[in-house]
Amino acid sequence: MHMNWNGKIYYDHPPMGFWLMAASYKLFGISELSTRLPSAILGLLSMICIYLIGKKVSKEKVVGFSAALILGTCVWYVIRVRSGNLDSIFVFFYLLSIYTALLARDRMVWFLVSMISFGFLMLTKTLVGASALPVIGFIVLPELIKFRKNYLWILGGIALLLAVVLPWYWIQYVNYPDFIQHHFFTIGTRGKTADSFLNLQYELPLFYLHMGVRKWYYLWLVAGAYLILFFRFIKKHVFSILLWNVVILYPFLTTDQTHIWHLIPVYIPMALIISFGIWDGGMMIIKLVKYFKIPLVKRLNLLHDRVLKGVYLGVILVIVFLQVKIFYSEVIPQYRYTPDDVDISQRVGKYDSTIYLDDDYLPLAVYYSGRFIRQMAYEPQERKILVDLFNSESKPFIVITRNWALNNLKESNIPYEILEQNESFSIVTKPQ
After folding, report:
1. Are residues 274 and 131 in the same domain?
2. Model confidence over 72-115: pLDDT tens digits?
3. Domain termination residue (choose one: 288, 306, 331)
């Protein structure tokens, strides 16, 4: 039950996302389409899940529909859903775990489903997935307290969770001595200490969050402030969403190693806070209008339920339109082309020498070349920089590097031969 990648045992992440991709390969063959298919399908299903959560929390279909629109028009959500990686799969199991936990408040049989889904979430990304547990626990707390009544469901859910999660983790722990350190600390926490979680470094993460969701960012701030300042969080389930937002966002605010795609799980509670906050705020304004009995509003029947929902949805749709108009060309190619990194990776596959990559797109390079590739950033000190590699390596090798990096070889008077080149990258070697 171990995975191999680029010639090495791989346990940076658990296997669920890769199992789904492997199943897609079995059904449709190995291709870009089959690689991206699980991510795309679960990305669409995630929008259905968030619709159901929004509807459950607010008792209004229009709020759930708006939450789905908001999530589906966060630019980095769209990018990652299309690109075939773990984020979309992770978001789906996160949403499914929370939705079934909400259902468990009424029928505890759903707690079994929630625990299975939470197990799949942990098998997609470990520590980030664990952030769902306090939210699930808070949602079903009234039923957990009734242990004597629900003990079979509770123990059954825990048993199912352990049955899903433990086998893979136990096998890795038994077979690989550095599994705990590498998986949970080096990769999971990026080597952070307990004290570092009290050290806020929020500027870069919040900037990335803004860039990832664009126009929804300020609406999130306004809606969240409204729910807190006007004590709307005391409403059933609303506190759960705010807690969810804090639990999943806070760890990213304590590190300078956050990347823009790491924050995608935060988009889920953000979308719910925006959709519910705007709706609830609108309802509060309506109550004030009714209280002051404004004649024109009453005469024009502007307080009719359909009118209110139409206005609310219209506001959301206008923002959706502006959002998509701005990022459409960034996400959807305007013409068919092969990106330079893909092109150079495809070309390098025909060479037999040791291949080094002087850049950070190793997964892409391995996939398109079909070869074992050594990323220079993880090599010993004497091979981390292009000039040092040419000076220290005596065996035959080739390097994929940026075209501008060749200037470093020229300035150091190091001879090199260009084997392949496109607009951005070169494949170079030492002359024989």
Report:
1. yes
2. 999 999 999 988 889 999 999 999 999 999 999 999 999 999 99
3. 331
Residue 93 burial class via C-beta count within 10 angstroms: exposed 0-12, middle 13-18, buried 19 and up: buried
Same domain, 326 and 419: no
The Cα–Cα gap between 246 and 267 comes to 12
305 with 416, same domain: the answer is no
Per-residue pLDDT tens for 307-331?
A: 778 888 999 999 999 999 988 888 8
CA within 13 Å, CB half, 218? 2
417 membership: H or E segment, kind and range? strand 417-421
- Asked whether residue 312 falls in the same domain as residue 347, the answer is no
Please tell me whether residue 273 adopts helix, strand or coil conformation.
Answer: helix
Do 81 and 211 sit in the same domain of this protein?
A: yes
Cα 239-49-169 angle, rounded to 5 deg: 85
> In which domain, by residue range, is 414 found?
340-429
Rounded distance between C-alpha atoms, residue 313 and residue 70, angstroms: 11
Instruction: Note the pTM of the prediction, 2 decimals.
Output: 0.89
Residues 111, 157 contacting (CB under 8 angstroms): yes
Residues 81 and 210 in one domain: yes
CA distance 237 to 261: 27
Instruction: Work out how many domains the chain is built from and give that number.
Output: 2
Residue 353 has phi, psi (to 5 degrees) of -70, 170
49 touches 264 (CB < 8 A): no
The residues, any chain, with a CB within 8 Å of residue 147's CB and separated by 6 or more, are 154
Amino acid at site 105: R
